[in-house]
Amino acid sequence: MTSEPALSAGKVLRNIAGAVGDVRVFGGPGRYLQGPGAIDLLGGVVAPFGRFPAVIGDRQVVTMLRSRIEASLGAMALQPRFGVLDGEITRDAIARLSQGLEGATLVIGVGGGKSLDAAKGVAMTLSVPTVTVPTIASNDSPTSAAIAIYDDNHVMIAVDRMAASPVCVLVDTALIAAAPTSFLRAGIGDAISKKFEAEGCMAGSGVTPFGTRPLLTAQAIADRAYTTILNDAEEALAACERNEVTDPLERVVEAVILMSGLGFENGGLSLAHSLTRGLVRARGTREAIHGAQVAWALLAHLAADGWPDEALRELMSFYRRISLPVRLEDLGMPDPTDDEIEEIARLTMTAPHLANFATPLTQAAVAAAIRRVEVVAGSA
Ligand SMILES: [Zn+2]
After folding, report:
1. Residue 142 to residues 88, 94, 106, 119, 256: CA-CA distances in angstroms?
2. Backbone angles phi and psi of 34, in degrees to 5
3. Is 145 in contact with 10 (CB distance < 8 Å)?
4. Of 150, 85, 142, 92, whose CA–CA distance to 264 is shortest?
């Protein structure tokens, strides 16, 4: 074994699979813990990985949880160091944090997506395992090996991938329930698309983020994420509004963080996520949270896939019940012009996941799907 950087191990895995053709890969976190008070189990979870864990979070989260984390780690005789993330996840920010935390035996990310991505980036730089402790459930990044990298102008420039998934994802549902409901609603939006993106990937010649054809397991998981959301999202959001942990909330958090993450990493992304390439740059929609963009984008994905108006209307009425966006106006773009729709479609065509749609797509077909969603939403 050579001591190659962790990133290239991921590439090697892709190359091996590509070279032998039909090898398929399933990857996921080593452990997943979920429940109220789970954060107090952190010490026991990380103790096997060495005595010097690093903890990375934004200032607010570190202030809120530091003493609890220190108590849990201290009970296992661990000596943590804390790194505070200020601002964007740039390559420079990751390098700076890594320098300050050299010698860490493991990196724990606590907080929202940026804190978890920073922890993953530092873990990758230091070649040590990572543990994610999401305090909101706005997307499935805690489960995934992906790291979104930005430049100083807040533009995403790359998605890096760790060679290994987090060794543990620890979700304290009391923290999730106490966080603003809008985050959980966004997480639902991010998760609801995964069934259909995986289906497209499987039906065509698509590949997962591992670069391989999907196994059936991911489809089964993504399907269950979808039905869980249909059955439980309304009650889960109501519970979150009351800051209360209930069974529906537990099930929806599992769908949003675990099932959605396993579903996309092993089942593949497709048109719905490709559309976010356009939405993150377009008027108004660029301000919308990722999960809201994905929820709306799923409607265009299904329109492009030939769903009849009636089926689209039914899904839209579910969206309306849980306040997910059905029109571009709901995403922040009232009265979209033809040029604006074309530009979203043009940028969508640059996304690599687009090749995971069941049939080849053109820019005109994507633009037509967006227009159809606008029309159906207007008539619903
Ligand atoms: Zn997503």
Report:
1. 17, 17, 16, 11, 10
2. -145, 135
3. yes
4. 142
**Could you write out the DSSP letters of every residue in 13-43?**
HHHHHHHTSS-------SEEEEETTGGGGHH
- State residue 108's pLDDT score: 98
Q: Is the pLDDT at 147 greater than 80, yes or no?
A: yes
Q: Which tokens hold the place of 372?
A: 């159809």
CA distance 336 to 345: 13
Query: What is the 103 CA–ligand 1 centroid distance (Å)?
Result: 32
Report the C-alpha gap between 168 and 154 in whole angstroms: 29
For the segment 264-282, the average pLDDT, to the nearest whole number, is: 96
C-beta neighbour count of 158 within 10 angstroms? 11
Q: What is the pLDDT of residue 152?
A: 85
CA distance 219 to 194: 9
- Contacts of residue 328, Cβ cutoff 8 Å, sequence gap at least 6: 284, 285, 296, 334, 336, 370, 374
Q: What's the CA-to-centroid distance between 21 and ligand 1, angstroms?
A: 28
Mean pLDDT of 283-311: 97
Distance 261 CA to ligand 1 centre (A): 9
- Tell how far the Cα of 267 is from the centroid of ligand 1, in angstroms: 13
Separation between Cα atoms, residue 200 and residue 203, nearest integer Å: 5
Choose among 211, 282, 247: nearest CA to 19: 211
- Give the model confidence (pLDDT) of 115-130 as tens digits: 999 999 999 999 999 9
Task: Tell me the whole-structure pTM to 2 decimals.
Answer: 0.94
Q: Give 228-241 pLDDT, tens digit per residue.
A: 999 999 999 999 99
What share of the chain has pLDDT > 90, as a percent? 89
Phi, psi torsion values for 379, nearest 5 degrees: -100, 0
How remote is the CA of residue 257 from the centroid of ligand 1, in Å?
Answer: 11
Residue 108 DSSP label: E
Mean pLDDT of the chain: 93
Alpha helices in the chain (DSSP H): 6-19, 42-46, 59-74, 91-100, 113-126, 173-178, 181-192, 194-203, 216-241, 247-253, 260-267, 271-279, 290-304, 309-321, 338-348, 363-379
* Span 184-199, average pLDDT: 98
> What single letter denotes the amino acid at residue 244?
E
